[in-house]
């Protein structure tokens, strides 16, 4: 069992085993060896991808979380999350499928005729799709797109250029966001269209990335579309796109990649550095577990999806940098995915991509900040000491202090005047606050996971990771609070002072960071 394993209910655990068995056989080296294609994001050629998707579809895996009426199995998104995690771990080209990229909007907003034409073949693994929202001059700001769809006799005329389109060179259809009311506000001026990429007037150009695979630039040269190609309602494109992005950002694929990258760290990485990466991975595991639990319970998922995206993609960068720095002679050459050779140079370049895909991490921090500051952080941790485990109890006490510090910061520091505004109006301050809040949440969630784990190596792993997380997390919260309070928080009579002194005392309660990193190093060698 992987030490990084998620905690799943029996039915979902069996699904995970079925997926692993399938993907383990599918992605065996003897099957992929003749299909390597470094110019494709998947690392494999189109023939392999289409055959693989058809087989995954035959097993009901591609559309497991789509409604039964749309050809899916009607399971919660937790099932899709588990599939994405395992597909990433095994390197399978069934993550950015037509169903993943286009299935949500087609299922939710498409007509029955559109579903029959586009969604059904995607569910069967017979059709590839793409999303074309972004533009070179807009980036994450969809309100700045300039592609237009103009009313003409019999339908619409689509003109403009979309950039950063994943899989455009092989997709059969793209979901395109275009401005249909230039005079309207951003949220009422856009409309979604389903556009066959072999239609007259479409040009697809492949642009190589720094890691040699390509993204697409798609030019629409007065493309003629009738009303049947409008997806959803005219003028509702913005809200539809936001719903799609929200669904996409919660993928656990990044955590799956992190698991695999941790396993293949080069021998030259010092044990202490490996242990620290595992402690960080345990935090991402806890955030991922929360997402799974919310989905299974039918709870609404909001900023929690952004938390998984931010923490998992930044973990990938940490792993890649440590691996590349720890590479020995003969391990530093660039090697394409699935080609024989060390992957570390490829990984360090690839780790950049997910931090800017589906919204840059800074954009997600903005969303997290808005959610946390709107609802207000709790004044104390929901995690209580149990007396069953002295290490976990120490983590619980530290999490309680972290929550109190965050409440003081939100109430006092973010409201301080600065340059004619409040401190909390500045993005840098809001992002610092987000990192404090995520540190506190990680303290709580890793301790809960450690407490819930049965006796054995994984529990030992999770307990030590929780204590490292609590030790370092509390210090991060204290440091952030002092930065946001400024000089006021440095005085002995300030409420922050006692928490600062206590944070350092708490470092040895239940074991020091050094002691628990040593145990993690032994468990992961």
Model description:
The protein is of the alpha+beta class and 525 residues long. Helices cover 52% and strands 11% of the residues. It has 18 helices and 10 strands. The strands form 3 sheets. The chain has a 4-stranded mixed sheet with strand order 1-4-5-8. It has a 4-stranded antiparallel sheet with strand order 2-3-7-6, with no helix packed on it. A hairpin with a 2-residue loop joins strand 2 and strand 3 (155-165). Helix 16 (457-485) packs antiparallel against helix 18.
Termini Cα gap: 15 Å
Binned strand content = 5-15%
Query: Which runs of at least 5 residues are low in confidence (pLDDT < 50)?
Result: none
Helix content range: 40-55%
Structural class by helix and strand composition: alpha+beta
Structure summary:
This protein is of the alpha+beta class and 525 residues long. The protein has helices spanning 10-26, 29-32, 46-58, 77-90, 98-109, 112-123, 237-248, 253-263, 271-297, 303-325, 344-350, 352-356, 361-375, 390-413, 427-452, 457-485, 495-505, 513-523; strands spanning 129-132, 148-152, 155-165, 173-179, 190-196, 202-208, 214-225, 230-231, 417-418, 421-422. The protein is built from 18 helices and 10 strands.
Task: Give descriptors for this structure.
single chain; 525 residues; alpha+beta; 4-stranded mixed β-sheet; 4-stranded antiparallel β-sheet; 52% helix; globular
